[in-house]
Amino acid sequence: MSLKSGYYQRILDSMLEGVIMIDEKARVLFINNAACKILKLPQKDYSGQSVVDTIPNTRLHLVLKTGKAELDKIQNVGNVKIVTSRVPLFDENGKIVGAVAVFRDITGVRRMAEEVTDLKNIRLMLEAIIDSTDDAISVADSNGKITLVNRAYTKITGFNPDDVIGKPASVDIAEGESVHMMVSKSKRAIMGHRIKVGPMKKEVIVDATPLVIDGNFVGSVAVIHDVSKIISLSRKLEEANRTIRRISARYTFDDIIGKSHIMQVAILQAQKVAKTRATVLLRGESGTGKELFAHAIHNASDRASHPFVSVNCAALPEGILESELFGYEEGAFTGAKKGGKRGLLEEANGGTFFLDEIGKMEVEIQSRFLRFLQEMEIVRLGSTKTKHLDVRIIAATNLNLEDMVKKGKFIPDLYYRLNVVPIFIPPLRERMEDLEALVKNTIRKLNQEYGRAVESVSNEVLEVLKSLSWPGNVRELENFIARSMINMEISEKIIKISHLPPFELPRKYSSEIRVPSGTTLKSALKNFERHLIETTLKSYGGNRTKTAEALGINLRTLFYKLKLYKIR
Question: Fewest CB atoms within 10 Å of the CB: 195, 435, 518, 542?
Answer without folding.
Answer: 518
